[in-house]
Amino acid sequence: MQVLSVTPEIFPLIKTGGLADVTGALPIALAGKGVTMRTLVPGYPQVMEAFKKKKPVHHYPLLQGGKASVHAVQIAGLDLFVLDAPHLFDRPGGPYGNAAGADWPDNWRRFAGLSQAGGDIAGGAISGYQPDIVHAHDWQSAMTLAYMRYGKAVGTPSMITVHNLAFQGQFGAGIFAELGLPAVAMALDGVEYYGGVGFLKAGLQAAWAITTVSPTYAQEIRTPEFGMGLDGLINMRSVDLYGIVNGIDTEIWNPETDKHLVSNYTAKTLKARHPNRTAVEDRFNLDRDDSPIVCVVSRLTWQKGMDILAAVVDGIVARGARLAVLGAGDAGLEGALLAAAARHRGRVGVVVGYDEALSHIMQGGCDAIVIPSRFEPCGLTQLYGLRYGCVPVVARTGGLADTVIDANEAAISAGVATGFQFAPANAGDFLHAVRRLVEAHASPTVWMSMQRQGMRADVSWDKSAEKYLELYHLLLSKKAI
Ligand code: ADP
User: Fold this and answer.
1) Are residues 198 and 332 in the same domain?
2) How many domains does the chain have?
3) What is the C-alpha to C-alpha distance for residues 363 and 373, in angstroms, rounded to an integer?
4) pTM for this one?
């Protein structure tokens, strides 16, 4: 089976979020299951620098305002089609904006260009290559499915995965004339959205199947609260809507071999977590004692409930836990958390910044990781927490609800609990969960059972890749009809 994946990000070449992890991991997880996945990515500087021999397999005299070509290359074990279009992608800064974080004003053109190339490849533009299925990700590649639908590849099954519905790619109607789509596409059941052009909306409309990154998020986005204006359309398409949780790279995230840890351990040698705990105490200037260390590794934003965290710091300390926060984002939240650390020396420590190595040590040394998100399509840090015996305390939403088993009485006596859930994401319920965590931590038998149960959970890509494969087969069977 040949699957063409079209994405604005892929790990390890270019990453701003979980989307890159998924598009980087899926081809590898599917390779052993009879699927050859080739991925079309933009030729950002980081991507162009990663290969020497240019091998153009397709040329555009003009693609969205400039010359472009597609190169077939292999990088880091991934089969890629790289869209070399310097006028669109050869820029400093991030994939979507300049170094200061401001979005490029022509993002619509950049990702229309990527999607147009995706539609062309789906339609057979590259000789000797014909995908059986096209799989797009998020608004930046969603228009691929519109180009397919109004072009040659109308009969090729397609899928779109929504990693976060908050980002939709909505633009004014004025751009339509430059997209190269037929006039009929500017319609309610096409790319038109509230009088403008909606990239994600167009993809949701055209896709043969829609997936999100957890079953609970798939249900949540059907409601006005989480649907971000697209719930009506998503409900109309609900028969074709699926939720598949993300996996994690269980080689990079393996407490037995993780090079970032001070001390490696397994579920059988949990005591060996102790030196990591001491390292966390040192790094965050925390008192050395036996009280639980609760950690946070997160973007500091409203979505992640970091304002709620800032509001409950005093309560966390009052309940006898210590807090270690690693994060960056909203300047107001950074300030509030740093102020809380100054108020509670020895009990609360905050490191502002992005630090991959420290995030591993925290998972390997802290007792619990708290994730009070208002919405969370899947979430990764709770999965790392499970794998590292760092018990997750999560808001019951999206992928957090699907991956953590709450330590209620029944779950504790059955020995299946892996963490704590609370809902809704507010200060009172958050603190109630912290109280439950402190109580459970006081019983070493209960606590170790939860740690071990979490470490036994299958958080690898294997099961999820199997589910994507089942869906691909379903789409191929629809094509046959
Ligand atoms: P999102 O993609 O919405 O930010 P996820 O939980 O899906 O949330 O993924 C976040 C990823 O970024 C995780 O791998 C997490 O460990 C990492 N991360 C977030 N903030 C930091 C930080 N300050 N330092 C190191 N890693 C971080």
Assistant:
1) no
2) 2
3) 18
4) 0.94
Q: Are residues 473 and 438 in the same domain?
A: no
Structural domain that includes position 344? 270-456
CA of 381 to the centre of ligand 1 (A): 7
How many whole angstroms from 193 Cα to the centroid of ligand 1?
Answer: 31
In angstroms, what is the span from residue 248 Cα to ligand 1's centroid?
A: 12
Whether residues 339 and 431 share a domain: the answer is: yes
Contacts by 18-22, CB closer than 8 A, 24 or more apart = 18/163, 18/213, 18/246, 18/377, 18/378, 18/380, 19/137, 19/138, 19/163, 19/164, 21/246, 21/248, 21/249, 21/380, 22/137, 22/161, 22/163, 22/213, 22/246
Mutational test site, ligand 1, from 325, 359, 386, 403, max ligand atoms within 8 Å of CB: 359
Same domain, 242 and 384: no
pLDDT tens across the length of the chain (481 residues): 999 999 999 999 999 888 999 999 999 999 999 999 999 999 999 999 999 888 899 999 999 999 999 999 999 999 999 999 999 999 999 999 998 889 999 999 999 999 999 999 999 999 999 999 999 999 999 999 999 999 999 999 999 999 999 999 999 999 999 999 999 999 999 999 999 999 999 999 999 999 999 999 999 999 999 999 999 999 999 999 999 999 999 999 999 999 999 999 999 999 999 999 999 999 999 999 999 999 999 999 999 999 999 999 999 999 999 999 999 999 999 999 999 999 999 999 999 999 999 999 999 999 999 999 999 999 999 999 999 999 999 999 999 999 999 999 999 999 999 999 999 999 999 999 999 999 999 999 999 999 999 999 999 999 999 999 999 999 999 987 7
